[in-house]
Design brief:
The complex is a heterotrimer of chains A (296), B (365) and C (290).
Chain A lengths: L12 H33 L3 H6 L12 H8 L11 H31 L5 H13 L3 H13 L6 H24 L5 H8 L4 H12 L1 H17 L2 H6 L7 H10 L7 H35 L2
Chain B lengths: L2 E12 L2 E12 L3 E5 L6 H9 L6 E6 L2 E2 L10 E4 L11 H11 L4 H15 L14 H13 L5 E5 L7 H18 L3 E5 L2 H7 L2 E6 L2 E6 L1 H6 L4 H6 L6 E9 L4 E5 L7 E5 L8 E6 L4 E3 L9 E13 L2 E8 L2 E8 L9 E6 L5 E4 L8
Helix pairs in contact in B: 2-3, 2-4, 3-4
Chain C lengths: L2 H33 L16 H8 L1 H32 L6 H9 L6 H11 L6 H7 L16 H26 L3 H9 L4 H12 L1 H17 L2 H6 L11 H11 L3 H31 L1
The chains are: A mainly alpha (296), B alpha+beta (365), C mainly alpha (290).
Amino acid sequence: MTELNSKYADSGYIQKLILRSLLFLLLGIFAVYYLMPLFIMVTTSLKSLEEIRTGSLIDLPREVTFAAWKTAWSGACTGIQCEGLRPFFWNSVLLAVPAVIISTLIGALNGYVIAQWRFKGANLIFSLMLFGCFIPFQVVLLPMARVLGIINLAGSISGLVFVHVIYGIGFTTLFFRNYYVSIPVELVKAAKIDGANFFRIFISIFLPLSLPIIVVTVIWQFTQIWNDFLFGVSFSEAGTQPVTVALNNIVNSTTGVKEYNVDMAAAIIAALPTLLVYVVAGKYFIRGLTAGSVKG
Amino acid sequence: MSTILEIKNLHKDFGSLNILNSINVSIEEGDFLVLVGPSGCGKSTLLNCIAGLEPITSGAIAIDGRDMTTVSPKDRDIAMVFQSYALYPTMTVGQNITFGMKVRGIEKNEREEKLLKVAKQLQIESLINRRPGQLSGGQRQRVAMGRALVRDPKLFLFDEPLSNLDAKLRVEMRTEIKKLHQNLNASMVYVTHDQIEAMTLATKIVVMKGGIVQQIGTPSEIYNRPSNLFVADFMGSPAMNLIPAKVTNNGKGTKFTIARSHGEPLILFDDNITKLPENVVLGLRPEDIGDANLRKGDKLQISTCSVDVVEPAGADTYVLINLGGKEVTARLQAETAAQTGMEMAFTFNMDKVSYFNAKTGQRLN
Amino acid sequence: MSEWLEKQLPKLVLAPSFVAILIFVYGFIGWTAWVSFTKSKLLPRYDIVGLIQYDRLFVSPRWDVAFSNLFIFGFLFIVISMLLGLLLAILLDQKIRTEGIIRTIYLYPMALSLIVTGTAWKWILNPGLGLEAMLRSWGWESFSFNWLVDPNMAIYTVVIAGVWQASGFVMALFLAGLRSVDDEIIKAAQVDGIPTWRIYLSIILPSMAAIFLSAFIVLAHLSIKSFDLVVALTGGGPGYATDLPATYMYTMAFSRGDIGQAASSAMIMMAVVFAIVVPYLYSELRARND
């Protein structure tokens, strides 16, 4: 790509060096900008309240203590209970795993149908589903609360799974459909002649091809669902809240002394799973983010 | 010899658009039928209808006497080779070829046996454990054919299988397909836009345009007696010369007057035909116009023409002359003394001429 | 399996999702719209009385603040994120060896929950113990950064946190766009003697129009949905100074027991999203089907 320095290639090694250094300086400053909050969160979580009050924001802890972490995990108060994040972390796991698996599976089948088994109206249905991705969820909160009550899932984790699956289908279908559209339609023709039926073709031919998009979809869905707050706070009760709601409760609890170190430790615990996924499989995550928008 | 494929009055519409109109074709066992025509003429669609991959609006298709109207592709006893080969990308060559058998529940041993037999036939034994991504174009083509062969079908369908190959490979594979046809005595329906492929492979050709059959015949019939201007122009390389002429009937036959840009019009006679309309188009293939100094024969008519362009091409020399407002190509022997601008005597073989109605394009003789 | 069933199978497989979307998206929108025309309070009532809820909405001072905050926050959030993202993308486009690591660093905030982001920035911007205190302890005695508790400035803290979260994503989008420009066009321009900055301005940026639009749509969408961030960062406060339509709706629905207001505010949010997204989707789908 275009090199900022191409113009100066002949007019001096020094000038080139200066510009390059400027570039790295700028990049470095921004790196600090992005890393700073994480750094502060970690250091604060390792300090005692004394240190926090007497020291400054970016000081390294003079005395590293994991007490805040212990409290955040098993002792912090999230309302009337003071069991820390642990039970709620587990709630999020019970919520995210089934929701991700089910919404991904449904999205794969839907994408397969829309991309390869075109029939009249398939595109219309796809457009309607696509639009559903864009709505502000505030507009479905009230009726969903009522429906969950009616089908006896109100305040339960299963209810939350149900909600996340329903509203995740739009995205997962989009991802798979865009992926399957680029597979030549003659593959299905050849398989039909070979005698394979709808499901056989999906299982023997399309699924084996789908690893990249499955990874992208799973990462995207997991991040969305684990990080969700709106559905969590609207449709759960004290025992079934996901970790994001519990975190908010800990941080914004009005009782007692504000324990900033516990707050920070709790925030990190809540963020760890998605952060870990990002670090390990980041490039697929990026692909997922840009797939929907750039529509590659 | 039984009729292996019979298409009767086939119509296909797509919404309000008519794709295929009144198609009537039938072939015997062992025939090699080629559907040829420009892109958009409906030949691929027709092939897909035969395969059962596309529905038809009206008419009937019968394979080996069985009506196929309600039969799905997998039960038609056919095999198909696609332009892009359509090999299953995550399966090995062996798995690709045996997939159909696996679906039908054939035992592993039998599958292996048939696989080896076909692999040997196509010389791809060494490729059995490779994936399609690791193969060259020609190898993929063979695997696609292997997948078709292993089905031992009543009918082989080919959808422009050579279009994705480079010129040299195309000629090689063309010969392979021809040999396969002869060795197996298989019935094949083959779609191509390349008229050379059509002429070299077919026992029967269907020329199509705009969803309508223009002519059905053997390569020789199509070549020597094209049924209309389109077929005359489309088939054969270089194309048939189509020269407008004015007709006058004298007592014993017909006199043709062909205008020229300079000088007197060219006059040709044909005593074997009468009652032609006033304006006709004369169809003469380049090899039927010769150098009068080199070609002798008392059936040939001779006339002097002015040479516009000379194109030496090895064994032949192509010479362009201007007749009736058109650039006419003559295929002369390499020894010809023709030079640009010179006036020379040319022979016209009126035994091989085709006459077409200038208005409708239909053949008149 | 019977022939008919086999033929209908694709439709049957798609049907449940389609029905679900019809009910849980479009049906629910309809329900909310309906209720927004009623006098519902704690429980929904279904007799339509007209635009009373919208009247109440538009004279409510709290809604006023929330709605204007949407545009203040939205505008700043989108513009700053796009500018920052573009700058970073251009910087990263300069063939850096450590590009992968730097990109990872710029992008990781997107992997965090907005609650986590809000919590972190709430701490950093804490007047007594955060940034303000730190700079003061460094000698800048008069530095004050109490935006978090200042009703007039609090909304800008939401902008700061939001930009931190989203600018990396915009950068990733733009970087992909910068790189999708054909190398040969660039080379031709360089041979023509066109300076680098001009190449960016006149050739590369214009070809990224579609990506700018995509980024805008995503950011606009994010800002309308901003709920988590406000809840964690400011709780809507001080007072309701950082309220956004999303938090207004939630408060009305679950704290105030005023479903009519909740429904009408939700419908307004819906209308804003609709006005932005529909023309975009329409032109996208049209271009794809051509």
